[in-house]
Write a structure and sequence with these properties.
This protein has about 150 residues and is mainly beta. The chain is about 5% helix and about 55% strand. The protein is globular and about 40 Å long. Keywords: Signal.
């Protein structure tokens, strides 16, 4: 399955926000639970892990550089995708590829919008809504994905 849309939603406490902002003021780094729909594979669920590359980021210019891994459950089979992402403000561009050598054409690009909302308790949810295009996967495909950031423990 060739999908990766990332809509990240996270619940932060005030102190967790402060700790995360030190390393990633765009609040993208973390672990997420994802759901999506792929034009070839249908509905899917996955686990996304995003890490900031502080050396390549320029947060004073509102730019972040990231690496990520997405593990997708394909009805008993698992697929792992690795990739790179570049954030500018509330937009995130992503490149991903299936890590399996048997899936050499299972790769694509995505564009996500990052949103952050605060609930009545003052906790934040960061959501990344992604659409993607995989030009070589089964003759070309596309999909959407939403990932919700899990609270830090």
């Amino acid at each position: 399955m060739n999908t990766l849309v990332v809509a990240l939603s996270l619940a932060f406490t005030g102190s967790a926000l402060a700790d995360t902002a030190v390393n990633d003021p765009l609040y993208i780094t973390g672990n997420y639970k994802c759901t999506g729909f792929d034009s070839h594979d249908g509905a899917f669920k996955g686990d996304l892990s995003v890490k900031v590359n502080e050396k390549s980021s320029n947060f004073s210019q509102n730019f972040g550089a990231y690496t990520f891994t997405l593990e997708v459950d394909l009805g008993g089979d698992k697929a792992t995708y690795s990739g790179y992402a570049a954030a500018q403000g509330q937009q995130l561009a992503m490149y991903f590829a299936n890590d399996s050598q048997e899936a050499a054409t299972d790769r694509g690009i995505g564009l996500a919008t990052i949103t952050r909302d605060q609930n009545s308790k003052g906790q934040y949810t960061t959501t990344l809504h992604k659409s993607y295009y995989a030009p070589d996967y089964n003759g070309g495909g596309h999909g959407t994905e939403t990932c919700i950031k899990t609270p830090q423990v």
